[in-house]
Task: inverse folding
């Protein structure tokens, strides 16, 4: 029986939300033996849906759903990781179709953990959520110096910048980084995150904001 | 060099705190000092050529002179149980994803699992000759269960493994947990040891690292056994766990039966709140926030410490200390203000 494309998209969103990667993967147990994000993506394309629709109306709502649950404390980082894995399995089929330049992004985010700090789980979550929300993310990694953020901004002058720090000691680099970036582009929007930082600290160093979780950050651009 | 203190060390003071009874004077609690503070408090410089006891003599003198009733000895300072890892030790910050030594059944089988009974456990007895009267050791392992598993496997890898290959994940947790249990069995048997710290970070800023049901499945059963072992030896069990663990506090108190909780951060919840929520059920240790200690003035630190001592004076169940430890970025004068606060508070009573 041929499934309705809308029904396929709904199922696809569910597989991403719950982290059902493909038919073989045993997680979640209640979806054992069912098709996962990989198979449903192929099915969606076969049904005549274009790649943009599969991404925007199937995969992204799934990531948004798990992100919403994460914001409410109903999902945990491992749930976000497996959702991202399901999304990646789907993207394996979509990516070649986007290579012709069909994909439109909400914007570009330059992302990195600041100098002296090697913590990357929070940063990686922001990356996953923002990619799932339609952003092009330029991940500079960990231990990123101000000059490296600046170089990336020079290459992507319309980008916004996200800096992460876990430590009280390393968050102090953020102020200097903002100064370096604003010397080049005074209106660049810079956001900070990580265990050590607070809205009060963001205000004190003239950052544009600090968010409690990655999804709130993504939502702030909607 | 041992200095004269306002009062003699008396482990029963910490014991009173851990039993949630008022102590007859304020009690200090700290997990670890940076080496600069150890040198300053002990007046003994590091000496790599000294005998095996010397580093612990420095440590004991620093805790003694600081006004503590015990010395904390973490297993990373000793030649006892340690799990081989792929990470850079002794760095200020590192990724939770730098492990990846065990990724599948084959790497699990070939991992060089250490024998927990092999090591210089005699040290814990030999230190009896070094401990001033009244002082005991508060011992901890070289990282906790979840911490070691994350270090061995990497956070992302073990996160996905609990879902995609739960049998292998369970074998890893059990392999680490059973060895840590043996460590605690051995160490808690020494007369010199008065309490044990199980140091295992479970939380991020907003929530636990894993869903509570995952922690209950893979992690908590081993902690319950470790606490049982420690209690059977007549010793106290202290949990040091960073991050937001509110969702599992009932497990910590009722199921695992820890005597005390250590590690608090203002950005998650203030220790003052933790004290009001939980001190009828579990002792609360430390909690003067690290950022507060690092960046506030001596006067502000003294004021907060006095307020904490006021808050807990009647009921007890509290020992004053930092939210985590004293790393080298805490200004010495701020740390000293915290330990001096017990004296000025006592003097003002």
Result:
């Amino acid at each position: 029986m041929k499934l309705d494309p809308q029904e396929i998209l709904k199922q696809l969103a569910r597989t991403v939300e719950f982290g059902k990667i493909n038919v073989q993967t045993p997680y979640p147990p209640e979806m054992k033996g069912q098709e996962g994000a990989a198979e449903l993506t192929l099915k969606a394309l076969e049904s005549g849906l274009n790649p943009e629709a599969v991404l925007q109306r199937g995969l992204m709502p799934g990531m948004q759903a798990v992100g919403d649950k994460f914001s409410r404390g109903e999902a945990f980082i491992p749930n976000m990781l497996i959702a991202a894995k399901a999304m990646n399995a789907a993207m394996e089929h979509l990516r070649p179709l986007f290579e012709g330049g069909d994909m439109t992004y909400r914007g570009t985010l330059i992302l990195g953990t600041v100098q002296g700090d090697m913590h990357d789980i929070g940063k990686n979550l922001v990356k996953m959520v923002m990619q799932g929300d339609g952003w092009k993310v330029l991940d500079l990694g960990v231990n990123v110096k101000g000059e490296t953020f600046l170089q990336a901004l020079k290459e992507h002058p319309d980008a916004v910048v996200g800096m992460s720090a876990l430590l009280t000691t390393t968050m102090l680099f953020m102020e200097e980084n903002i100064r370096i970036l604003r010397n080049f582009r005074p209106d660049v929007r810079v956001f900070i995150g990580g265990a050590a930082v607070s809205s009060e600290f963001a205000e004190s160093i003239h950052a544009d904001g600090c968010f409690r979780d990655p999804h709130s950050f993504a939502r702030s651009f909607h | 060099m041992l200095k004269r203190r306002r009062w003699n060390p008396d482990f029963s003071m910490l014991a009173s705190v851990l039993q949630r009874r008022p102590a007859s004077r304020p009690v200090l609690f700290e997990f670890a000092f940076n080496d600069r503070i150890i040198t300053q408090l002990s007046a003994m410089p590091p000496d790599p050529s000294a005998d095996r006891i010397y580093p612990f003599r420095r440590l004991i003198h620093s805790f003694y002179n600081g006004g503590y009733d015990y010395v904390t000895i973490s297993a990373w300072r000793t030649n006892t149980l340690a799990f081989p890892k792929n990470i850079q030790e002794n760095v200020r910050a590192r990724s939770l994803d730098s492990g990846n030594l065990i990724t599948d059944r084959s790497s699990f089988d070939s991992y060089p699992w250490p024998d927990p009974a092999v090591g210089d456990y005699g040290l814990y007895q030999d230190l009896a000759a070094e401990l001033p009267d009244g002082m005991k050791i508060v011992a901890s392992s070289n990282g906790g269960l979840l911490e070691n598993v994350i270090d061995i496997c990497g956070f992302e890898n073990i996160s996905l493994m609990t879902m995609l290959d739960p049998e292998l994940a369970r074998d890893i947790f059990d392999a680490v947990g059973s060895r840590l249990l043996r460590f605690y069995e051995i160490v808690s048997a020494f007369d010199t040891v008065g309490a044990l710290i199980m140091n295992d970070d479970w939380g991020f800023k907003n929530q636990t690292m894993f869903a509570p049901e995952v922690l209950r499945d893979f992690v908590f059963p081993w902690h319950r056994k470790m606490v049982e072992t420690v209690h059977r030896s007549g010793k106290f069990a202290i949990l040091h766990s960073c991050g937001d663990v509110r969702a599992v506090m009932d497990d910590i108190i009722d199921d695992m039966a820890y005597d005390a909780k250590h590690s608090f951060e203002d950005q998650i919840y203030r220790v003052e709140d933790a004290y009001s929520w939980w001190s009828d059920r579990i002792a609360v240790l430390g909690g003067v926030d690290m950022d507060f200690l690092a960046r506030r003035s001596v006067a502000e630190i003294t004021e907060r410490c006095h307020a904490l001592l006021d808050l807990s004076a009647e009921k007890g169940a509290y020992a004053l200390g930092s939210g985590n430890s004293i790393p080298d970025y805490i200004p010495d004068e701020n740390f000293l203000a915290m330990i001096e606060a017990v004296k000025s508070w006592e003097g003002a009573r």
